[in-house]
Amino acid sequence: MHFHSSLLLLVSLTLTAARSPKDGADPANNLHFITKEVRDHIADNYISLWDGNYDIINSTFSPDFTMLYQDRFPTGLGNGSVLSDVDSRAAFLAFVQRGRAAFSQYEFKVVRKFGEDNVIAIRWILDAVYKGGFPLATLAPGASLSYNGTDTLTLDPSSGLVVEVWSAQDLMNLFHQLGAPVGTL
Ligand SMILES: *[C@@H]1O[C@H](CO)[C@@H](O)[C@H](O)[C@H]1NC(C)=O
Ligand SMILES: *[C@@H]1O[C@H](CO)[C@@H](O)[C@H](O)[C@H]1NC(C)=O
Ligand SMILES: *[C@@H]1O[C@H](CO)[C@@H](O)[C@H](O)[C@H]1NC(C)=O
């Protein structure tokens, strides 16, 4: 009898351990809250924010947003690159606004979107029309450009709001199309 109940306990512990990472039902992390609907809603909001809908910043990003991790940015002046320092929700909004400022059209198209638990990955194409403003860019104002990237968003398991963004984008392609110097080896 004693042997029997220990065995049942062991079986039940094993099942719990095997199940929780897959269905996201880990009560300690509240991951059960992050449904596909939540992920889709936040992904739509994220693209909408980049479309210039700045009002939804606080219903998309957590006040505890920590960091936009991304590749180093060429300065566009031919003297190397700078590290991203976007480390707060307000700084992220300013980053979006700075990005949009040089373009008269700035439209992200979602190519594919993937989600699991509290993480969303969005593969995008940016279709933009250059307005002007980058000091050494030779692209004529009014010309269009297009390049690709993938943004991965981590959501706070309790609120469902974005706490971290990892962005991998083809910056060499962007600067190439802008005709801006990135320096040479
Ligand atoms: C977002 O919240 C901050 C406070 O953290 C506030 O200063 C700002 O006005 C809010 N922005 C919008 C668009 O609601
Ligand atoms: C590049 O040159 C600009 C203008 O002279 C300067 O402000 C900036 O600090 C330089 N950046 C690097 C990474 O050397
Ligand atoms: C972006 O990716 C698409 C495939 O999704 C490809 O057809 C296109 O050439 C890429 N654009 C650039 C500028 O590399």
TrEMBL record:
Keywords: Signal. It holds the Pfam family SnoaL_2. The keyword Signal applies. Transmembrane segments: none annotated. It comes from the Eukaryota. Residues 49-164 form the SnoaL-like domain. InterPro entries: NTF2-like_dom_sf, SnoaL-like. SUPFAM superfamilies: NTF2-like. Residues 1-18 form the signal peptide. This is SnoaL-like domain-containing protein.
